[in-house]
Amino acid sequence: MAKVEEKLRIAIVGGGLVGALAACFFAKRGHRVIIYEYRSDVRMEKSHGQSINLALSFRGREALKAIDLEDILVKRHGTCMRGRMLHDKDGNLKEVLYDSVKGNCIYSVNRRYLNVVLLDAAEKYPGVQLKFNRKLLSADLEKGKMQFLDTNTGMTEDAEADLIIGADGAHSKVRKIMSRKPLFNCAQTYIEHGYVEISVPHTKDNQFAMSGNNLHIWPRGEFMMTSLPNENRTFTGNLFAPFRVFEKLKTREALLSFYSEHFPDLLQLVGEENLVKQFFEKEPQTLISIKCKPYHVGKTAVIVGDAAHAMVPFYAQGMNAGFEDILVLDELMERYESDFAKILPKFSELRCDDGHAICDLAMYNYIEMRDLVTRKSFLLRKFLDKVLYTLVPNFWIPLYSAVQFTRMNFRECIAHKEWQDKVLRTSVFYFGILFFAIFAILVL
Ligand code: FAD
Which Gene Ontology cellular component annotation is one that this UniProt entry carries (predicted)? Predict the structure, then answer.
């Protein structure tokens, strides 16, 4: 552990996944931390609003490992997904492994459980205080002053800190306050697609209704269904589709005929009544992508996780990248001995362009998951990647592996893929010339 010259007062706005993780890292270095969370204590509630499972991969695991939580969350309570299982309309299955060379998998973990474990872990540090039902109303980020609404009493509460960490999610109030500063750039994009959560029950004898070690996908061109296994042998997934498709699914009949046409095998597993009940329980949710720069104000405020780089969920990297933000901050605290005048600008320098890169990759992966995965050219490219990765695993790392199974920065992941594309295009060109030359020699 780094030596701490001065114990700082850290205010973390948002006690979601990234905020709770950040509290552990800062408290581990001896700082005094207060988490201010808008909602009530998730540990006292039965269910959580958003999707109930998440795919955890290398970047997230490395962060959990640093605070000794990897074992309990991944090894004991995570469900290994070794590849995608593609379902066609006739119910035929095709498995595409994530990493047939090194056998890496990604892990499905319950979102609520993850949050509970992180909050419990944070609370165990002596310097950590958790305040629920506190909504950030306003802040002077340079002076470290904040005003919260206590949603229980309706009273306002003033607070002060040496460092404010905005871990308050995609619609971050801290980011909104930052956006009034000169030279702060921010762009938000809602995609035209939304999602509805659908769960698949376990079988009568308490088994998985489909292979329990895969992320299941029903790619249908402009829309798709996905499903991730849960520890209790159910699956939870989503229908991702354009809102104009959801507009047509307003009645029971329309919904059942849509599922019979596009996802007949899934309909059978979910059951008609169950599907209708789940589907009409909630409105389709929107998906947003946020790119901003910088991520900090002076030495007193910084945004992390979705507050800094919310992204569409198709690379399963939102939480993983948010966890990696905290690892990067921790690495910088080690290097600069908790001198935030040096740490925060460096964090923006290292992380902003990377945040933009993973937002772009996540957008790209939606097209891959719902459409490209069924194409021969995609499968051929996967095959070439596999052969080259087997032959030269340290030299040729497929894009998916680089994102999910390494800590290569996201810009480098894209640059590496562009280089691979160029190598393959050039090779095809020269093989073509060679082929025609041999053909000409033989024929003439
Ligand atoms: P959040 O989890 O949104 O937490 C923010 C917290 O701040 C909340 O608790 C909120 O109540 C609180 N808050 C908000 N405003 C205030 C305020 N004014 N004052 C005080 N508190 C406030 N990521 C993955 O890595 N893998 C996946 O498989 C994956 N799947 C996903 C599937 C779907 C359908 C979606 C929508 C997202 C998925 N993600 C996934 C992304 C992941 O959910 C997010 O990246 C992650 O939750 C971000 O964590 P966070 O702590 O930054 O934000």
Answer: mitochondrial outer membrane
**Cα 367 from Cα 382, distance rounded (Å):** 16
ipTM over 0.85: yes
CA 161: distance to chain centroid? 29
| Alpha-carbon separation of residue 120 from 11, 41, 327, 376 (angstroms) | 18, 11, 19, 48
pLDDT digits (tens, 9 = 90+) for 364-417: 888 877 777 778 888 888 888 889 999 998 889 999 999 999 999 999 999 999
| Model pLDDT for residues 208-251, shown as the tens digit of each residue | 999 999 999 999 999 999 999 999 999 999 999 999 999 999 99
> Which are the contacts of 177, defined by CB distance < 8 A and separation ≥ 6?
138, 139, 141
Residue 39, ligand 1, Cβ within 6 A: yes
- CA-CA distance, 223 to 226, in Å (whole number)? 10
Q: Which helix (H) or strand (E) holds 226?
A: strand 224-229
Q: Is 108 in the pocket of ligand 1 (CB under 6 A)?
A: no
Residue 98 has pLDDT above 50, yes or no: yes
Check if 57 has its Cβ closer than 6 Å to any atom of ligand 1: no
**Looking at ligand 1, which atom is closest to the CA of residue 174?**
18
17 Cα to the center of ligand 1, angstroms: 7
